[in-house]
Design a protein that fits this description.
The complex is a heterodimer of chains A (307) and B (504). Chain A has 307 residues and is mainly alpha-helical. Helix content of chain A is 79%, strand content 0%. The longest helix of chain A has 36 residues. The N and C termini of chain A lie close together (12 Å). Helix content of chain B is 33%, strand content 24%. By secondary structure, chain B is an alpha+beta fold. Chain B starts with a helix and ends with a strand. In chain B, strands 1, 8, 9, 10, 11, 12, 13, 14, 15, 16 and 17 form an 11-stranded mixed β-sheet that branches. The longest helix of chain B is centred in the last third of the chain and has 18 residues. In chain B, strand 6 and strand 7 form a beta hairpin. The chains are: A mainly alpha (307), B alpha+beta (504). At the A-B interface, helix 2, helix 3, helix 5, helix 7 and helix 12 of A face helix 1, helix 7, helix 8, helix 14 and helix 15 of B.
C-alpha cells in the first residue's frame, strides 16, 4: 500500500510540474500585467511600464521566475497577487474550502438523485417511467448551467425570496449553486446508471438471486448495484475534473468565493502568481480524487482487495 | 395535504435561515465589480479603488460629484514664482483614524513615497511626474515645486495616488500591512477586509467635514452584472455599479428600486488603421462614418444609454466642443463618395473588437450591417481583451478598424488625446502628424485653462477633419439603487461620497 501511495505521490509531482510549467508559460505569451494595472492612467510611458514590471519581478527570464515559483511551493509560499499583493496562500486557503464544499455537495446530491432514478429506469426499461426519466435527463443535459443558475435565482431569490441570490451567508447559500451543478450532473449520471444497470441485470447471477426468492430491493441494491459500482466510480471520479471546470461559471453567477472565481479573475487580470497557485492546487485536488477512486475500488470489490 | 404541509414548513425553515442580517440600521450596502486587492493609494489604478478611496482618504483637493474642485485637506492654494511653485495652506486640527496628526510632514511623506521607490513599483507615479518635490514651509504650509506645468494637476490631486497617507503608521507597520489595514483621514474608518468578498467601513465621528449620517458602509465584490441586479432585487444591496442593459426596465418597475443612467467618462470609437487598404483615403474614412446610423444603434442596441459623440470624449470632458457636430448619417452620399474614391462594391475590411464585450459585439454587428448597405463588407474579428490591448493594437497588427474604448477619471481630453494621437504613443500605432503633435504639446505646457480649452477643441476638430476614427458614442454611467438609501449624490465616475447619505 505504501509503495502504491509513494508511486502516486511521484505521479502527482510530475502532473503539477507539467501543468504549471505549461500554464505559466502560456499565460505569459498573451498580455502584460503592467498594462492591466495601469489601465486608465493617461500618460503611461514605456519606462513606467518597465518600472512596474521590474517591481513585479517580470523582467527576469521565464525560467528564473518559474524556479522561484517552484521554490515557493516547497517552502509553502505561493507569492503575492499582482493585483494588490495579497498573499496567494491566503486567497487559496479562503477559496479552497468553498470550492470543495460546493463540488462535493453537488456530487453527493447528484448521486442521491441519479442512482435510484437510474435503477428505476433500468428496471422498468421501455415503460412510462423509463421514458419519463430519459426525457428529463435529456432536458437536463440541454440546459446551459449559467441559464439554469439565473432561473433558479429568479425563482428562489426574487419571485419567492427564500434564498440569498449570491455570496456566502452560511449553509443556505450552498443550496442554489449545488442544485444547479447537481441537476446538470444528474442528467448524465442517470443515463450512466441506467446503462450500467441494464447490463448487470441481464447477468446470470441476478437471475440466480431472483430465483432464490430474494427481495427485489436486495437484488437491485446489494447484488446489482455493487457489481456495476466500478464503472460508476471510475466515471464519477473522472467527472470530478469536469466538475471543477464547470464550477467556474456557476461560481461566477453565484459570486461564490471559490477557486473557480479566483482562477477566472486571475486569467482575466494576468495575475500570474494567483493563476499558478490555483492551478497547482486544482491539479493536486484532481490527483488526490483519482487516488481516492483507485482506493475505493478495493472497498467495493473484494476481488481487487485480495489481489 | 401532507406534501403541502411539508413544502410549507420547508419554506419556513429556508426563510428563517435566509433572513439576512445585511440591513442593520444605518448601513448602506454597495456592490463593486472588482476587488482592487489593496487599499494603498499607490498600489493600483482601478476604478473600484477610486470608488472606495474617497471614503477612507482625503486629497488636498476634493472633486464633488458635480465636478467642482473644492478644498479638501488644503484650505487654499496659490501659484507662486511664475507658476513654478504651488503653495498649499493645510487644514488645521485634522487627525488620521489612528490619532496621528495630519500636517505638512504627512503631505511631504505622501508625495516622497509616491514619487520615490514605493511609487515606482506601482501605476500611479507616472501621473504625478510633473512634481519635482514637496517642501515643508511650516507645519501647516507646503510648497509643490514643479518640474513642468501640469494643467490637470489640481484634478489629479483630488484622487487616487494623491490621497494623503499617515507617515508614522506606514513607517511602523510597513506598506503591506497598510494596504490590508488602511488608515486615512476620510469620513469612514476601516473595519474589516475579506479579499475577494467584502470590505467593511464605519463612520468617522470626528471627520473634519462633519460626520457621516450612516453608521456603516459595506462593500461587496460582485463581478457579474446579472448577479448585482439579483442582489439589488433581493434588497441585499443598495447601490449596484454594474447593471445589464436588458435588466434596466425590469428594475425600474420594482417600486423599491430605481435606476440612474447619466453621462459618464467612457467614450467609444472605431479607430482606423490609416495605413491599410482603402483606409489610407480620408474621403473613404469619412464616407464610412456617414454610412453608420449611430442614433439607431444607441436606441436599439444600447437602449438609449449612450450619447452620440463627434470627438473621442463625452460631454463632461474638459475640451469637449458642443459646437462640433458629428458627420450626418447619409448612406446615399456615403455610397457616392466611396464610388468616387474608387472603392469597389464588396471590398472587405476587418473590424477587431473585444470579444467578451457582448454589448459591443452587437454594436459591431450593426456597424457591419450599415457598411454592408453601402457595399463594404465587414469581417468581425473578436479578440481576448488583453491580447487586443497588449499585442494587436500597440503592435500595429490591427485590421482596417478596431474598437477603441477609453475613460479617464480626470474628465480631461488631454489625457485621452495625448495617448491617442501623439506620435508613437501606445494607442497610436499608425498616425504621425506634426501638426497634431505640436497642438498636443502646446496645451500640456500651460496653466492657462482657457487657452488650453481652445487648443483641445482645435485638436478635436482637426482629428474629426482628418477622420482618424469613426466616433461612436459616450456610454452612460448606470447605477441600480434601492430607494431606501437617500441623499446619494450620483457621481459620473463611480466615486461616491457617502457623507450626507442616509438610509431608511
Amino acid at each position: 500500500m505504501s509503495a502504491f501511495v509513494f508511486k502516486r505521490f511521484l505521479q502527482a509531482i510530475f502532473v503539477v510540474l507539467v501543468v504549471t510549467l505549461f500554464v505559466s508559460y502560456a499565460v505569459r505569451l498573451s498580455g502584460d500585467p503592467a498594462l492591466m494595472l495601469s489601465q486608465g492612467a493617461g500618460s503611461v510611458t514605456e519606462q513606467d511600464l518597465q518600472n512596474i514590471r521590474s517591481g513585479l519581478g517580470l523582467d527576469r527570464p521565464f525560467l528564473v521566475q518559474y524556479a522561484e515559483f517552484l521554490r515557493g511551493i516547497v517552502v509553502g509560499d505561493f507569492g503575492r497577487s499582482f493585483m494588490g499583493g495579497t498573499p496567494v496562500a491566503r486567497l487559496i486557503a479562503d477559496a479552497l474550502p468553498a470550492t470543495l464544499a460546493l463540488a462535493s455537495v453537488s456530487l453527493l446530491l447528484s448521486i442521491l438523485v441519479s442512482v435510484p432514478l437510474g435503477i428505476q429506469a433500468a428496471v422498468k426499461q421501455g415503460r412510462g417511467i423509463d421514458q419519463f426519466i430519459r426525457i428529463f435527463s435529456l432536458i437536463g443535459l440541454s440546459f446551459p448551467n449559467f441559464w439554469l443558475a439565473i432561473m433558479l435565482v429568479l425563482l428562489l431569490s426574487i419571485t419567492f425570496p427564500l434564498l440569498p441570490p449570491s455570496g456566502w451567508d452560511g449553509p443556505v447559500s450552498l443550496i442554489m449553486p449545488a442544485l444547479t451543478m447537481a441537476i446538470i450532473l444528474s442528467a448524465t449520471n442517470v443515463r450512466l446508471v441506467r446503462t450500467a444497470m441494464l447490463e448487470t441485470l441481464s447477468a446470470q447471477y441476478i437471475t440466480v438471486a431472483r430465483s432464490k426468492g430474494l427481495k427485489d430491493r436486495v437484488v437491485l441494491y446489494k447484488h446489482a448495484l455493487r457489481n456495476c459500482a466500478i464503472p460508476l466510480i471510475t466515471y464519477i471520479g473522472l467527472q470530478f475534473g469536469n466538475l471543477i471546470g464547470g464550477i467556474v461559471v456557476v461560481e461566477k453567477v453565484f459570486n461564490w468565493p471559490g477557486l473557480g472565481t479566483l482562477a477566472f479573475d486571475a486569467i482575466a487580470g494576468r495575475d500570474y502568481p494567483v493563476l499558478q497557485g490555483t492551478v497547482t492546487v486544482l491539479s493536486l485536488v484532481i490527483v488526490i480524487v483519482n487516488l481516492l477512486v483507485d482506493m475505493a475500488y478495493g472497498l467495493v470489490d473484494p476481488r481487487i482487495r485480495t489481489r | 395535504m401532507k406534501l403541502k404541509a411539508l413544502i410549507a414548513s420547508a419554506s419556513l425553515v429556508f426563510a428563517t435561515l435566509a433572513a439576512s442580517p445585511a440591513h442593520a440600521a444605518g448601513t448602506i450596502n454597495v456592490a463593486l465589480h472588482q476587488d482592487p486587492g489593496n487599499w494603498d493609494p499607490v498600489a493600483t489604478f482601478l476604478v473600484s479603488w477610486g470608488a472606495v478611496g474617497g471614503q477612507l482618504f482625503d486629497g488636498l483637493i476634493i472633486r464633488t460629484p458635480d465636478m467642482k474642485l473644492v478644498p479638501g485637506l488644503a484650505t487654499k492654494w496659490e501659484f507662486l514664482d511664475k507658476n513654478t511653485k504651488i503653495r498649499f495652506t493645510l487644514r488645521p486640527n485634522v487627525k488620521f483614524h489612528n490619532g496621528e496628526p495630519f500636517d505638512a510632514e504627512a503631505v511631504k511623506f505622501t508625495f516622497d513615497r509616491l514619487l520615490g521607490e514605493e511609487g515606482r513599483k506601482g501605476p500611479q507615479q507616472s501621473n504625478y511626474n510633473s512634481i519635482d518635490k514637496v517642501v515643508v514651509v511650516n507645519p501647516l504650509t507646503v510648497d509643490f515645486v514643479m518640474k513642468s506645468p501640469d494643467p490637470v494637476l489640481l484634478t489629479k490631486l483630488a484622487g487616487y495616488g494623491a490621497m494623503i497617507v499617515p507617515p508614522k503608521y506606514i513607517k511602523e507597520k510597513g506598506s503591506q500591512h497598510f494596504g490590508m489595514n488602511p488608515v486615512g483621514t476620510g469620513p469612514f474608518k476601516f473595519v474589516e477586509y475579506k479579499p475577494k468578498i467584502s470590505l467593511g467601513l464605519e463612520r468617522n465621528a470626528a471627520y473634519w467635514g462633519g460626520a457621516p449620517k450612516i453608521d456603516n458602509l459595506n462593500y461587496r465584490f460582485i463581478g457579474e452584472p446579472a448577479t448585482q441586479a439579483a442582489e439589488l432585487q433581493a434588497g441585499r444591496i443598495d447601490v449596484a455599479n454594474q447593471i445589464p442593459l436588458a435588466m434596466i426596465e425590469t428594475l425600474k418597475k420594482d417600486p423599491k428600486l430605481t435606476v440612474a443612467s447619466m453621462d459618464g467618462p467612457v467614450a467609444l470609437a472605431l479607430r482606423y488603421n490609416t495605413q491599410r487598404g482603402i483606409m489610407k483615403d480620408r474621403e473613404v474614412r469619412k464616407a464610412l462614418i456617414m454610412a453608420v446610423d449611430r442614433d439607431a444603434i444607441i436606441k436599439s442596441v444600447l437602449l438609449g444609454n449612450a450619447r452620440p459623440i463627434a470627438s473621442f470624449q463625452g460631454t463632461l470632458s474638459f475640451g469637449n466642443d458642443p459646437a462640433l457636430k458629428p458627420l450626418p448619417f447619409n448612406p446615399a452620399q456615403a455610397k457616392a463618395m466611396l464610388q468616387k474614391a474608387g472603392v469597389k462594391p464588396g471590398t472587405t475590411v476587418q473590424l477587431d473588437f473585444r470579444g467578451p464585450d457582448s454589448n459591443f459585439r452587437e454594436v459591431a454587428q450593426a456597424v457591419a450591417g450599415y457598411l454592408g448597405a453601402v457595399g463594404v463588407t465587414v469581417s468581425l474579428k473578436p479578440y481576448d481583451t488583453n491580447v487586443l490591448l497588449n499585442d494587436i493594437i500597440p503592435g500595429g497588427k490591427t485590421g482596417e478598424m478596431w474598437q477603441n474604448q477609453w475613460g479617464g477619471w480626470t474628465f480631461d481630453y488631454d489625457n485621452t488625446a495625448y495617448a491617442m494621437y501623439y506620435t508613437k504613443q501606445r494607442w497610436n500605432p499608425f498616425d504621425d502628424d506634426a501638426k497634431l503633435n505640436a497642438l498636443l504639446h502646446q496645451q500640456r505646457n500651460t496653466w492657462d485653462q482657457n487657452a488650453r480649452k481652445k487648443t483641445l477643441q482645435e485638436i478635436s476638430r482637426y482629428v474629426a477633419d482628418q477622420a482618424l476614427e469613426m466616433p461612436l458614442y459616450s456610454l452612460n454611467t448606470i447605477y441600480g439603487l434601492n430607494k431606501r438609501a437617500k441623499n446619494l449624490e450620483l457621481p459620473a465616475d463611480g466615486r461616491f461620497r457617502f457623507v450626507n447619505a442616509t438610509v431608511e
